[in-house]
Amino acid sequence: MWELFILYSSYTLLLLGSFLSLTFGLGLLRFPDFYSRTHAAGVADTLCAALIIFGLSLQSGFNLVTIKLFLILIFLWFTSPTSSFTLASTAYRSGYGIKNNSSKRAE
Amino acid sequence: MKNSLVLSALLALFWLLLSGHYVVFTLILGLVSVVLIVWLNHKMGISDEHTLPVSLLKRLPNYWRWLFVEIIKSNLHVVKKIWQPTLDIEPQFTTVSSPFKTNLVKVIHANSITLTPGTVTVAVDDHVLLVHALTKQTLDSLNSTKMNDKLTTLEKDL
Amino acid sequence: MILAITAIALLVAMAMTLLRAILGPSIFDRILAANAFGTKIVLFLGVYGFLTERPDFLDIALLYALINFITTLAILRFFESGVLFVKSDEESN
Q1: Residue A34 lies inside a defined structural domain of this protein
Q2: Tens-digit pLDDT profile for residues A68-85
Q3: Which among A65, A91, A101, B135 would be 20 to 30 A from B31, CA to CA?
Q4: Would residue A45 count as lying in a domain?
């Protein structure tokens, strides 16, 4: 009974994670300018990664595999703000998309 | 000294968890790498409170728990915006004050803002962060004083 | 079954990311897409390791996450200054 519950919650988390990864793809294609797209990428880096990794770790039980999964998650959560910030600040300092928000030309 | 000890303990734990092979030869290799890294850190002069804030470690889990809830909330907001049939966003730049004395807490503040979807830190000045916000609502959550309060309690320990 | 669905969803998202990398329009959109693609690969490697019941894939995923982070920083640095290693004053503080 308990195992079934764990299995189904793992499935739920994985499906939610898949939904969020599709959401991220859609947002990346739909949003009109570069700075808005970074927000869509933020969804994939934070909650989508967390849901998929939680779902996988429920299936593995508690062993070294779980710890490795959590190390991956911690690592993603530590590095993703750094790389998003570096990306956004490089774009800002090179003057991209500041004058008008429509951002037609670049480089 | 205290930092080097904590660092070597953390590195040894990290090595043991990743390795999974506990025979004498690999353990010696792990020991050598831990000593090498701690020595290099010491030699480069980067083993201090900034690179490994030991005193902050016991307060961080509490902050992380709060931040996790915030991340879920703002994720739901952004997901809703992405799936809306007509795109209803007001992307804009705004400034947020970051009245913290230490660089470390300022970095935590900027990274927390970036980590919550809907807001991305774009530039950091002395006490002002330039933030790009996706909608009006994410803007309001930025200006609420909740995050500043949490970070002020973090800074007390430093 | 569910793992396969997750893997397919990740692959679809990766295809969408590639589309954004091709469409551009600016270099920053492409770097953003490359970085997000790397995050998706890390998750996909984890799911694939469970799908084939070989958790060794997690080591590769961890390594890939590390390399992806360094790559993004290196590309941005190269784009901004034109060289990878440069002595800059703003780094000292």
Answers
A1: yes
A2: 888 899 889 989 999 999
A3: A65
A4: yes
